[in-house]
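re the bet — no i am not wrong, look at it urself. input seq straight from the record:
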Amino acid sequence: MRVRNVGAGGGAWAEVAARLKGRFLGSMIEGAMLSEYTTFRIGGPADLMVFPKGIGDLGRLLEAIAETGCPWMVMGNGSNLLFSDRGFRGVVVVLGRGFNRVKKNNKCEVYVESGCSINRFLSWAEEVELGGLEDLAGIPGTMGGAARMNAGAMGTCIGDRVLELSVMGESGGEVQHLALDRDKAGFGYRRSGVKDREIIYIVKLELYKKDRKEIRARKEHVLEWRRRHQPLEYPSAGSVFKNPTGISAGELIERCGLKGARSGMAQISEKHANFIVNLGGASADDVLSLIRRVKEEVQGREGIELEEEIKIVGEVLEA
C-alpha cells in the first residue's frame, strides 16, 4: 500500500496565513474538516485550507509556502482522495471556483481552468456543440484532476484530447510557468507526467463539432450506465484499484468473494466490487482495513498485486 505520510506542519501554516493577509483575494479556513470537502465524506481537520482566486493568488500562495517550508498539497473536488482521520498537518490548496473559466478559439480548441468540474465543462461543451469527452459524464472530479490522472471511461481518456497543459511549478520562491504539450505530458493508464510539486492551472483541449442532441444522448446513455452499475447512492472515492492488464479489478475482487465485505461502516459495494462505500460514519481506518484485505486476498488467490487508484493522504496507521 502506498501511503503518503506528512510531517507535522508546526506553526508554518499560520505563518503562511500571516504572509498572505491583505494581499490574497481568495479565502482561508483554519481547521476545516476534510470530510466536508471529499466525495468519500471521510477525513479529519486540515491546519489550513486555502481557496485561491486566480493565478495571481496561486503564485502568492506558493511563494509563501516556499518561504516557510510548510507541508502542502493540492486538491480539486476531492473525488479521488482518502484523507486520514487525523487530518493533514499543513496547507491544503483547493482549486475550485477561483479556477473555473472556459473559453474557445475560432477552431475547436478549448482552454479550461483546472478547477472547473468535469460535469460543468461537459454542459458547456454540449451548449457550444463540441464533442469528444462526453464519455466522462458523471465523473465527479475537476478538469485539472482528470488531466493529472488521465481520467477515462468507456474507452475514452482525457489525454486523448489534450493539446497542452499549463503547469505552475515551485522552485524556492520563484514561480515558473511550464507548457507541456501532449507528447511531453506522458499520458498513460491513469497517469500523466505532471510531477507532484507541479500544479495544472489550464488544460488546452482539441474537440470536434457535434450535434447537441447527439452529445446529450451519449451523456444520458453514460449516466444511465453509471446508475445501473455503480453505487452512486453512497459516498465513495470512485474506483479504488487500477485495472490490471487484461482483467478488471472488480472482477478479481468479486472472484475472491469479497462483495459486501465490511469493516466498521465501510463496505465493498454489493453493486460494484471495485468501489468501497461509506455507509455513514466510516473512518479512513475502516477503508484502509478493506483495502489491505482486498490486496492480500487477490494476491493470495489470483497471484495479482493490485495498485490503488485513489490517493491516500495523511498520517495513517500501518497494518
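see?? The chain has a mean pLDDT of 91. told u. also The radius of gyration is 20 Å. so pay up
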